[in-house]
Structure prediction request, 445 residues.
Amino acid sequence: MKISIIGTGYVGLVSGVCLAEKGHRVICVDQDKDKVDKINRGIPPIYEKGLGELLQKNINHTLSATTDVRSAVLDTDLSMIAVGTPFNGEDIDLTYIKEVSRQIGTALKDKTTYHLVIVKSTVVPGTTDEVVLPILEKASGKKAGIDFGVGMNPEFLREGEALSDFFSPDRIVLGGMDERSVEVLEELYGVFEHTDKLKTNNKTAEMIKYTANSLLATMISFSNEIANLCAAMGGIDAVDVMKGVHLDKRLSPILADGSRIVPSFTTYLEAGCGFGGSCFPKDVKALIAHGKKFGETMQLLDAVMRINEQQPGHIISLLTKNFPDLRGVKIAVLGLAFKPGTDDLRESPALPIIQELLTREARIRAYDPVANREAEKALGNHNITYCDNLSQTIDGVQAVVLLTRWEEFRDIPRLLAGLDPQPLFIDGRRMLGKKSVARYEGIGL
Prediction:
């Protein structure tokens, strides 16, 4: 199938490269000429494990990139909208969605064959049918359901694991305005023969995405609230508490041979310094705001966000417990991206933590295996030294704060063992054993 994908951010580019690898002909479209030029040279403008190699394999074969929306739409059977939908505090910003819809609609004026337009961006329920569809009809002068179809196909890609998630999906949601729209989507994803596919209308498809992210965010904030209570009471380790919870056979089923299945979702039931990224904070806030328009106060999700916004403060509290005055204290911050496997700093807990440390005049050495450059853009380099490796970062510091679960950081106990005096180690992700270093502090302990 011939596909055009408008928007080469995280979702658009990963989807485009993976669909090309699956044998479809894909044209990626972006208004940023520099990004398009990079893609055509096989250089991904974002970091994602394995993406560069796959892009180089398919570019100029089954994959190309352009700034020309019109030519891409006219030359393909299906267009995916994968542009950003930032949240402004009251609504998701549909500026890009509306503009791309107008551009696609204008191109459809001159198209003589049926074309399917799919919304891949995360949008609140009702957007595809009530915003995108009317714009397409007005700009094209044609009728949805007759001349073209409209669908909604949410993505469920975890940053850092996006390629494996795309090639081995747990479900594919096929939203459409009518049967024909869904049938075209079925053809697109026909290569995934053994994956559960849920056919539904557009509004339900939109709601599935928000509900899935809100559930995972709720699990994280629940775990953090329990962890904070454990720490306040004393004598309880939240890690042990959650291990005891995980052993419930409804969460980790016991097989006939006595072994257990440990579902990956249990990783969301672990204490830490809070969630971040481009999805969870934005999507939960957007669903809260959307619910209020319908008279639903969304009290649980409100609490989820309040807990998450307060969680970075617990790292500061652990520091001030040991250093009442942080002025001049040398602190190593390990991990800047919101999670391992990506250079994405959006809503990363590291940002408010570092900003508070700067306010308190601490001296910061920072390191992330891939996100140093993005962090320097976001935070600047005033009173922050960005280091090239782990050893350099912890050399001569008084405290080490771990904020992202990079596997490389498992080497910390060995590196700290050789230091004298021993720095304080604060585990913001409960990644290492509490007896693995001489001076250990952790969330929920």
User: Anything to note?
Assistant: The chain has three domains: 2-200, 212-310, 312-442. The chain has 17 helices and 14 strands.
